[in-house]
Amino acid sequence: MGKTERFTIVREVIQLKSVKYKTLDEKIGYVKLTQFQQKTPQDLEDALSKLEKDNINSMILDLRNNPGGLLNGAVEVTSQFLPEGKLVVYIKGRSGEKQEFQTIIQNMPITR
Questions:
Q1: To the nearest whole number, what is the mean pLDDT of the chain?
Q2: Which candidate, 98, 75, 97, places its Cα nearest to that of 86?
Q3: Do the beta carbons of residue 104 and residue 76 sit within 8 Å?
Q4: Which pLDDT band holds residue 106 (cuts at 50, 70, 90)?
Q5: DSSP strands (E only) in the chain
Q6: 103 touches 39 (CB < 8 A)
Q7: In 1-112, which residue ranges form alpha helices assigned H by DSSP?
Q8: Angle 48-20-85 (CA atoms, 0-180°, nearest 5)?
Q9: Shortest CA distance to 77 belongs to which of 52, 35, 41?
Q10: Which of 89, 85, 90 is CA-nearest to residue 104?
Q11: What are the respective helix, strand and coil percentages of the chain, to the nearest 5?
């Protein structure tokens, strides 16, 4: 009972997969975004490219239970679906200063 043990604890970054996808029956692509991380836009682009190879004819983008995450990731994800220059979101500070975030140029992985 009086024995002391020492442990070394190492903090690690836990990588959660933020993009999950599959092809459903009848060529429907299903993409679930669980949160917006730094790699989410690239992971989404990769998923859409793979779904395109499956010759999907429609797609479901599931954002349910997505708590958000990195604002830049959300803007880049939105940019994969909307034309350049569209307002995604704006932030208004206490001083009344408004900062807008618009879609940016992207290589569109799926033909619209």
A1: 91
A2: 75
A3: yes
A4: low
A5: 19-24, 28-33, 58-62, 87-92, 98-102
A6: no
A7: 40-53, 71-79
A8: 50
A9: 41
A10: 85
A11: 25, 25, 50
Tokens encoding 94 = 């206490």
Dig out the tokens for 21 from the structure: 């996808």
Rounded CA-CA distance 22/47 in Å is 9
- Burial profile 35-71: b = 16 or more Cβ within 10 angstroms, e = fewer: bbbeebbebbbebbeebeeeebeebeeeeeeeeebbe
Q: What are the structure tokens assigned to 36, written together?
A: 């917006």
Cα 90 off chain centre by: 18
pLDDT for the residue 112: 42
The model's pTM: 0.77
Q: Which two tokens stand for residue 57?
A: 């004819």
